[in-house]
Structures
1.
Amino acid sequence: MEYIDQKDIQKRMPKRLAVNKIVRGIFFASTVFGLVVLAILLYDVISDAYGWLTWDFLTSVMSFDPANAGIIGAISGTLWLMMIVGPFTMIIGVASAIYLEEYAKRGRLQTFIETNISNLAGVPSIVFGLLGLTVFVRILGFGSVVLAGGLTMSLLVLPIVIVAAQEALRAVPSYLREASFGMGATKWQTVRNVVLPAALPSILTGMILAMSRAIGETAPLIALGIPALLIPLPSSVFDSFTVLPVQIYYWTIDAALEAEYLFLAAATIIVLLVILFILNSTAILIRNKFQKRF
Amino acid sequence: MANSMNVHEMIKDKRQKSRRHKLEKAIPFLLFLAASVSVVTTVGILLTLIVETVMFFSEVSFREFFLSTEMSPLNPSNPTFSILPLLSATLLSTIIAMLVAIPIGLSTAVYLSEYATDRARRVLKPMVEVLAGIPTIVYGFFAFTFVTPVLREIIPILDRTNILSPGIVMGIMIIPMVASLSEDALSAVPNQMREGAMAFGATKFEATVKIVIPAAISGIIASFVLGISRAIGETMIVTIASGSTKNLTFDITQSMQTMTAYIVEVTSGDAGAGTTAYYSLYAVAITLFIFTLSMNMLAKYISKRYREVY
């Protein structure tokens, strides 16, 4: 017992407990810090946008005059972009995941492809913009049109879809596959009729998250040379287009010239955030409602 | 069974089987083609960057690019190319971002993993992660129209565009990433270790600092390195809020241009294909690519190499 000095311990105890209490407060404050910033950000944007987010603003075409400017062009451009990104990433992404999870032999090739996908996920988006500019806009000569933007964005979000789909496929228990094989089904029949339907809710969740990433991305599209000024709306994938984030970018920068542009940018931000909020809530809903537990 | 089948039916059956067989053979090949899209993308990125960078260095010397200090690519009479001003801006914004993201992100992770009740964690964690879902263009707007004016009230010498404000906002953007990856690392530390420390009379804070954090250190450091990589590659916040002055300085109150913002400026500007300014784009991009790729690989290496196995 003489190794322990009870008195000393007793003396130091209140200080140690106090330190614990104080740092607990600091840690909690740090956690709340992000939320406070989020609240300030929303307040800032909403107060700037107040009075500018009208029905006319949503349905008018772009104009130099802030009072008449609208974002129907950017909204329709965003929808056009999604019409490329959606099918492309769904098909390529899910097919890649099926190959990696169900068909590929465990070995060097599979490891190589998977390492490549995870590295691709860490490449800055602006570099994808440069790839799109060089390959789709310049070499293939598409110009800054929906197709070029859509393909660039698809390549950017492809890793997200592949990884999500891989996880979804991995979560399908092997007894389902074995039962299907046991009934005499072939490999592809098993994948198509048993594995894919079971994994679909999680795949969709990943798809929606990838889409919301693509809707919010700005840098690659600016690198592609997507204009902010667009009077005619796009009517095919070979038409030029603009999207909400690009519109926000140019209006924020032009606010130096004409102060009202700032309010237009804020109003556009709210539209963008509402779209993202709806998409993300849908993803969470699908995950909670339809995901079966095996 | 075969006896009850007439010849006609047997032929039909055989045809169907061979068609199915062909499909079974073709499917893996088609799926492999899809999986190779991502490999082709990487090859495409490398090829475009390397080819055009070679063109750039046939016109501008390595020496000028890495050692001179002047960057004025669009100067019609005497264009100069040096990556140093872009590097100093990138480095500064990254340091500022990490000074915000590391302490706050790690504290958040410790709170969520060690202190928070289950209920509090279920509410707080998704709320913190909302920060990661906000588009960077919105953060850019926030930095430019709100944070900078507020900072200028405190620091009057701050330029209208500067590297401090986008650095801070970038740090806020990275908080959820550091927090969530560090929290994963902290929660992976087995409970016996905490309980052991507490059985010796350690307070929660002592157990966390002396036992839990050291045990999770590889995952925590990997999260910092990934945060750095994200800060280096982030584009829109700095493009909007840090200006386009190519300034080789370490004064955070000044307007500076990062590598990513330079790429945006040149691509959205008038530098026509084939000019030296156009090729410089790729030389800067490949530098950026190498930086972020090595950071990402370093993070993977750290979390793999130094993972403690319990």
2.
Amino acid sequence: MTTAERTRERRLTTARAMVEGIAQEMRRNEEVFVMGEDVGAYGGIFGTTTGLLDEFGPERVMDTPISETGFIGAGVGAAIEGMRPIVELMFVDFFGVCMDQIYNHMAKIHYESGGNVKVPMVLMTSVGGGYSDGAQHSQCLWATFAHLPGMKIVVPSNPRDAKGLMISAIRDDNPVVYMTHKGIMGLAWMAKNARSVGPVPEEEYEVPIGKASVAREGTDATVVTLSLSVHHALDVAERLSGEGIELEVLDLRSLVPLDREAILESVGKTGRVLVVDEDYRSFGLSGEIAATIAEEDPTLLKAPLSRVAVPDVPIPYARPLERAVLPTPERIEEAARGLVGA
Amino acid sequence: MDTSTRLSLYRTMVRIRAFEEAIRREYYVGKQPVFDIGAGPVPGEMHLAAGQEPVAAGLCAHLRSDDALTGPHRPHHIALAHGVDMKRMTAEIFGRESGLCHGKGGHMHLFAPEVHFGCSGIIAEGMPTACGQALAFKKRGTDQVAAAVVGEGAVNQGGFHESLNLAALWKLPVIFVVEDNDWGISVPRSASTSNFSATDRGRAYGIPGERVEDNSVEGVYEACGRAVQRARRSEGPSLIEVHTLRLWGHFEGDAQGYRESELEDVPGRDPIPTYRRTLIEEGLLDEEEAQRIRAEAEEEVEAAIRFAKESPEPAPDEALEHVFA
Ligand SMILES: Cc1ncc(C[n+]2csc(CCOP(=O)(O)OP(=O)(O)O)c2C)c(N)n1
């Protein structure tokens, strides 16, 4: 890339990239609207709707009461009538008060109707910890949603993917749960991950749902991961590269559908796999990946699969406790070294 | 109302304010000049209750330490007024081993079973728990009562309505207290709630209620007194709504752009100077005594902060403990 090209390259935070994707779809399609708590004047607690009220007005950018069952269910209803609502659940942890609308309605109606009824809505929500917000505001829970059939689950890790996945999610005829880790948003009030600001094309574009991306090529082991952990894995990979260890980092980007081919291809190449998951360890994503390899071809593995995830405890508040359970770069590095040495 | 009660209400409010001011000061340590929510000795979200002291003082004056109380995400004022140990509560907010919850809970999840106190960061979800505590008291035939404090934003949550119905149906000894500070983060009550007063909703379930205007601590005291007495006499639940004041942002770091039009006169509505003036005018308090009350409160608060800072952090391994009993 020439210097001129680089200066022309526009960089946005992940939050801005999401907003741009939403705004472009709202301009293109009158049926797209946004609702949720504090999405209007506040612009979304995590900046996911900043500026939308000014451009589109309160009819299309609706602040809601704190009534998640009500307004998520209303999103389902509007989607059934063919509109394309984007509904924000402020923190995924609040799913407890509204899960019925999500999994018994949003996710099942298409199937129950024998394919007659479509529910083209986006449920966007923030996930993840690392800033001491305690057990009710720090979970990822993506596997909980992925476990329940009928919803696509996307989890971008960077601004470019965030915009493209948002556009794909809005255009998709299925319910899509769109989960963003607070640590990748580029928020002004949270320690910024260096890659939470990045180049984003101005035009509309889709990033296909269900396709993983190789965030870094390597030969010695594959780190299968997503969201903020992609960045930790990339940082670790750079460090280990200096010692001659080359990690491949696979950014899943979607959980449902899961890009099993990409996982198998990479593991076929490296023969070693480390799953890094900020969700709970048992009965979740890391187990699913292990099962995928075991079912397909266990001989791909030259060493036992390794995983770094949240041990099966709620996310504790105090910093040393929280750091002990999150997949920190230190834990990833230790696991990667162990795996490559195995 | 007798003088000692009035002075005691004042003292409780001043004690809470001294606490919230000190926590606010400590919260910004390590977060300046660039605010980073995860930095400093007190990380995470911080919802402070300055301006809402009348609710805590007026309600808790009637509660005994064997009565139950559940709070929302903004819990410090009612925790302190109900007798939660200030030192261990401060240590919890600092994430220390000596904290109420050994550092596992944090400011939104304070639990003190010795005074039957708990809170939750999920809107309205302390209400069903309070119903259950009231149910236990009723089944055992004690005269204990339970109270649940929530913000006005909570009245639109299913848990609120289900709790009201249960409490009325089962005639539970429970007091629901709604702190109407006009705002649910950035959303004014007028944009979130179809009818004006939560007491109307209570009445629809057969629960008598009172709305206290002007953030008046004595008004809260009187109304809660009636409600607690009703509950103790096994006459069933009540709902008290207080038109109170969020003196500061929703959480620390909130620029409150959405509230610009009213911010200018917010300090003038601060309930503590107002009550101090009343007490002084009526000759029950003088400046000197008021200063002494404040100094005493500060001394207690600073001792609690010292205790927290001097306490060790929990060892990382402790993260794995306490999943099961
Ligand atoms: C079920 C649920 N939805 C949303 C939130 C996010 N949230 C935290 S505080 C808050 C506003 C609460 O307003 P109110 O009940 O009036 O209490 P206040 O903050 O004004 O004291 C919201 C929406 C939450 N914690 N739980």
3.
Amino acid sequence: MHASLPDANTLIARLAESIAPTFAPETVIVGIHSGGVWVAERLHALLKCASPVGALDISFYRDDFSRIGLHPQVKPSNLPFDLENRVILLVDDVLHTGRTVRAAMNELFDYGRPASIRLAVLVDRGGRELPIRPDFAALTLEVPPHQNINLSRLDDGHLTLSLA
Amino acid sequence: MNPQLTPDGRLRHLLTLDGLPRATLTHILDTAESFMDVGEREVKKVPLLRGKSIFNLFFEPSTRTRTTFEIAAKRLSADVVNLNIATSSQTKGEAILDTVDNLSAMHADMFIVRHSQSGAAHFIARHVAPHISVVNAGDGRHAHPTQGLLDMFTIRRFKGEFHNLTVAIVGDVLHSRVARSQIHALTTLGVPEVRVIGPKTLLPTGVEQLGVKVFHDMAAGLAGCDVVIMLRLQNERMKGARLPSAQEYFKFFGLTPEKLALAKPDAIVMHPGPMNRGVEIASEVADGPQSVILPQVTYGIAVRMAVMALLAGGAST
């Protein structure tokens, strides 16, 4: 199944191409831990974004906290810019139920009121449980509920998509 | 079985650090680290405990501990109710349980308990419904686990590791629930040498059994230390026959710049507060470059947030 998924780096390049025509230099890029940050860092370079890349860990905003508790390794969010009235490109690796994106938007608003938020994902795998749609998706495919798409990063920085 | 843990190892209550596994302590400290960022944001709140009701049940007054628990709970978006209940015959045994039953009927989710009697938090924890967690905010001479944890958090932040440290706890160990919690945490986290320093009248008999070295002389006890933890001296100890006078105590066991110079040059100085300046610690030391007393207060909020979040969500280790 692994071999059937496209190369992640090719997908990121494709994603950057689709974003570029409407990407303003003052836009800030924010990735969602962990995979979204890896993708955001690549997009940041490809789109020649002027502001530093931001990172969100949405663990404190999850709607399933009371059921499953805290993720054991919460990383602090890092937004090294003022969000007020900024255009934000929110980036995640895989869009599934939409709950992670909802949590990320809730957290962003605790840092300020952005002018707008646009969503870019590497893969839109379907299975949405909330009315959330990506503005940019490099790959759209239907994946059965029992399967997961994972983005992993090797020590040399190489990104790989796998289906399990 | 440890009453603080569920059969599958999750944290159910926090009553004492005695007997808690190292992995649990480390998990709490790691979680606190992730909460540090929240206090520095413009909106100092996360929605983790939204809709939860936390009752600060203080049978013994303590403004600072109560306030830090309250801030921590509010930063987690919980609803907090403070109950300061004067210690009297009304706060013993069945009367305490009546209070707890009433608050449980108001759909409490967590009790933060301070009481002058050792074991009060355990007593309440044995009684509460399964969905309610109890945090001991200090009981008699027994334990003050969140203070112990915030001290460990402070040490880790300034020293990085525990395995190569010499830590001295100075003062009234006999009456100190804080010292007991510190000793349990330090030994569990692998500090190779924990020293207690104080006059014979203020050190418990057999304290060596807790795995500490005993010193009655500050110069010998402080030599080569990485961390110096000063304890608060309660005024009532002066009135009893345990100590001749505050001046005499300060002369032998007060931390002055001269005595601190005997520890390692990069040693940090800690104090659980509130301080008696000129009794257990000199102002030059309390406000000096080696003092980490104010960071301790800041860290206390993150640590208490971590404890409450893990209790409410389950602390799987």
